[in-house]
Amino acid sequence: MSRIGKQPVQIPAKVTVAVKGQEVTVKGPKGELKHNVHPNIGIEQEDGVVHLTRSDDQRQNRALHGLERALVANMVNGVSTGFQRTLLIEGVGYGSDLRGKDLVMKLGFSHEIVVNAPPDISFEIEDRGRVIHIKGIDKQVVGQVAANIRELRPPEPYLGKGIRYSDETIRRKAGKTGK
After folding, report:
1. 147 or 128: whose pLDDT is higher?
2. How confident is the model at residue 124 (pLDDT cuts 50, 70, 90)?
3. Could you report how far apart the first and last alpha carbons of the chain are, in Å?
4. pTM score, two decimals?
5. Looking at the chain, which terminus has fewer C-beta neighbours within 10 angstroms, N or C?
6. Are residues 55 and 88 in the same domain?
7. Number of domains in the chain
8. Contact 165, 86 (CB under 8 A)
9. In what order do the strands lie in the sheet with 23-28?
10. What is the CATH classification number for the domain harbouring 43?
């Protein structure tokens, strides 16, 4: 059995899970998420716990078992507590600001870059525009928005300028040595 797939998903208070066929709907204080579970994976809800089972031990079904359990667990965590990614901006003249819900960034280009906030995603700015918090209920969307913003100016290894994750370390390279 899959070590992750066989673990039950605990449903906290204030969160409701509805299973209708292969569709799972999770509602909580922060919002609502829906997901269609793969047809080879069975899903059952009982006594505040969700169990996922697989039909057989084929390689693909073993892989899907743990994946689907993790996706359902992320949905439950998202609607109850939410997810957050933090980005750091380093560089002279680099910064960010909020205009309504949209993020406006100055990254050393001749123009400002505007990042529109997708639905259910919010931005927060700290430290005079040097720290960006991306918050939302869907872990996949939060991670993709953070990756898209980081891609605008990835950190470079010589001076360390650019946008990086808060838990990321950049290996610095030595530059040219002069005589």
Report:
1. 147
2. very high
3. 63
4. 0.87
5. C
6. no
7. 2
8. yes
9. 16-20, 23-28, 31-36
10. 3.90.930.12
What values do phi and psi take at 109, rounded to 5?
-90, 175
Average pLDDT of the chain is: 91
Q: What is the pLDDT of residue 24?
A: 94
Q: Are residues 71 and 93 both part of a single domain?
A: no
Does 63 reside within a domain? yes
* Same domain for 87 and 20: no
Report helix, strand or coil for 127: helix
DSSP 8-state assignment for residue 56: S
Q: List the alpha helices (DSSP H) in the chain.
A: 59-80, 139-152
Report helix, strand or coil for 113. Answer: strand
SS3 52: strand
Contacts of 100 (CB under 8 A, 6+ apart): none
Amino acid symbol at 106 = K
